[in-house]
């Protein structure tokens, strides 16, 4: 049976995944909790780097986080002085975050539905979608969600994404569709966005999922096979070590073999 026919609904998928609320459920489920902490630290670094590049201050801004999950990034937005609205398909995740951050707003619903999005009191200054959009398997739902993001932003507002942005062909795998960079570029431009910057997130911390640069990918693929067992056995050692490697490589290389972070701005 093909992946498309075997896919559960996205609601069923997250109801099962969030039976327990910790970063292992929203992060890399095959790696230990201590290692996932370093994975998220690296992703948070990249998002903050892009906001600094845009000279964007969170203070007093309205932030909408799509797929807020366990709330890993919420603490950063709150610490920066933003007013946060977070949405998720999991009622359990939403309830836990509303209890934790009562002065902010969390809602359970499907952001691809424009009627639901309109009830969140837009416009927002910043919308984020970290490890979210590749779960929108259907292209119509994906493109409609990007349009809804544009409609929910103020003029000149920012959109932060963490995705694969594959340089090869779009890859469908179970509940995930990793679309290629060209598909994102074309759709974002058609939706009213300009792409401001894109930076690689991972090199050694997760497995290779893209084809370029080819020589580097071959080296990193072999390195992953060697390091993965040690990530399981010594996450407190391998987490900071691979974090340091990926941070160094990410500061000098423009492309990577795995997740990337993209900053877009809604054209005025």
List keywords for this structure.
two-stranded antiparallel sheet, disordered N terminus, alpha/beta, about 45% helix, about 270 residues, single chain, 7-stranded mixed β-sheet, globular
Per-chain topology:
Blueprint: H1 3-6, H2 10-17, H3 23-26, H4 33-53, E1 62-66, H5 74-79, E2 83-88, H6 91-100, E3 105-108, H7 114-118, E4 124-130, H8 139-152, E5 153-163, E6 171-173, E7 176-178, H9 181-191, E8 193-200, H10 214-233, H11 235-252, E9 260-266
Parallel strand pairs: 1-2, 1-4, 2-3, 4-5
Antiparallel strand pairs: 5-9, 6-7, 8-9
Helix pairs in contact: 4-11, 10-11
Overall structural class, as computed from helix and strand content, comes to alpha/beta
Hey, roughly how much beta strand do the residues contain? Answer: 15-25%
Average pLDDT, to the nearest integer?
89
Order of helices and strands: HHHHEHEHEHEHEEEHEHHE
Q: Looking at the structure, what is the overall shape?
A: globular
Tally of helical runs: 11
Low-confidence stretches: 1-7
Alpha-carbon distance between the two ends? 46 Å
Helix content class = 40-55%
Q: What is the alpha-carbon Rg in Å?
A: 18 Å
Largest beta sheet, briefly? 7 strands, mixed
Widest sheet: strand ordering: 3-2-1-4-5-9-8
Per DSSP E runs of 2 or more residues, the count of β-strands stands at 9
């Amino acid at each position: 049976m093909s992946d498309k026919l075997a896919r559960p609904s996205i609601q069923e998928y997250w109801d099962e995944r969030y039976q327990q609320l910790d970063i292992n459920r929203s992060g890399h489920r095959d790696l230990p909790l201590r290692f996932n902490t370093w994975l998220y630290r690296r992703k948070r670094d990249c998002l903050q780097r892009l906001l600094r590049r845009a000279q964007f201050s969170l203070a007093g801004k309205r932030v909408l986080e799509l797929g807020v999950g366990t709330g890993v990034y919420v603490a950063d937005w709150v610490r920066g002085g933003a007013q946060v609205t977070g949405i998720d398909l999991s009622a359990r995740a939403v309830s836990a975050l509303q209890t934790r951050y009562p002065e902010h707003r969390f809602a359970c619903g499907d952001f691809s539905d424009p009627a639901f999005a309109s009830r969140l009191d837009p416009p927002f200054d910043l919308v984020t979608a970290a490890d979210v959009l590749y779960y929108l398997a259907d292209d119509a739902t994906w493109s409609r969600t990007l349009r809804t993001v544009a409609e929910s932003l103020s003029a000149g507002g920012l959109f932060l994404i963490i995705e694969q942005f594959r340089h090869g062909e779009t890859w469908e795998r179970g509940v995930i569709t990793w679309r290629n960079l060209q598909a994102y570029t074309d759709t974002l431009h058609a939706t009213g966005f300009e792409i401001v910057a894109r930076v690689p997130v991972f090199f050694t911390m997760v497995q290779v999922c893209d084809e370029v640069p080819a020589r580097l990918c071959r080296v990193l693929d072999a390195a992953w096979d060697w390091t993965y067992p040690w990530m399981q056995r010594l996450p407190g050692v391998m987490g900071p070590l691979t974090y340091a490697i990926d941070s160094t490589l990410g500061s000098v290389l423009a492309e990577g073999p795995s997740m990337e972070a993209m900053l877009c701005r809604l054209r005025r």
